[in-house]
Demethylmenaquinone methyltransferase (Rhodoplanes serenus), 217 residues
Amino acid sequence: MAIQWADYDLDYIRRRYDRIAGLIVPFEWLLFMPTAFRRTAVARIGLRPGDRVLEIGCGTGRNLPFLRDAVGAAGRVYGVDFSSGMLARAGELVRRNDWSNVELTQADAADYRAPEPLDAVMFGLSYNTMPHHRAVLARALDMLRPGGSLVIMDAKLPPGIGGKLVLPFSIWLMKHTVLGNPHIRPWEHLAPLVDGFEMEEFLFGSYYVCRGTKRAG
Ligand SMILES: C[S@@+](CC[C@H](N)C(=O)[O-])C[C@H]1O[C@@H](n2cnc3c(N)ncnc32)[C@H](O)[C@@H]1O
């Protein structure tokens, strides 16, 4: 099995997500996502009632209930995603819950600009699916207020020999499902750009949450 990764173009990725929008929950099982992973990741952001938070690549909205709970009715949750299929499901969730303070936008994350400075930005299982992730990260930092929190939560290869052994299977699986490039190490991109960088691993290092705060000035 191949261990090379060739980036896909944005339109191909968007169309893939339109097609798999109904499969996100089965993929969570297939990829052994820890049950409390989303809740834990959102807790690590350190949101307070009234905060403004953006999820980049919010998909079908699986993190939105935790984000909405954390900021409360006085806060604001923004979600951006370029897949209409994914976003339609998130929109349905917002309508069902009558969340008037959750605003979803269909756009490429590199082009999105939140309407106000943000207290926090989270990449929810999305960083590795974006070939232009460095540009999206720069844009995310730009939208944050100084001292605001940037969090990346995702799956990764486990450390050591285990990671090397599963790499070919991981590449095959990603190419056939969510198109997340397992060679990308987002925590190495984030760490030099923020203050107070921290990283926490789950399930033998196959999931992680990393975070830091935007520097002043
Ligand atoms: C694996 S899904 C994760 C969805 C959701 N955050 C979750 O945790 O279930 C990745 C999401 O990122 C979105 N995405 C990928 N590239 C994007 C881009 N360039 N701009 C906006 N959204 C993008 C996809 O459409 C998809 O919904």
Notes: The chain has a mean pLDDT of 96. The radius of gyration is 16 Å.
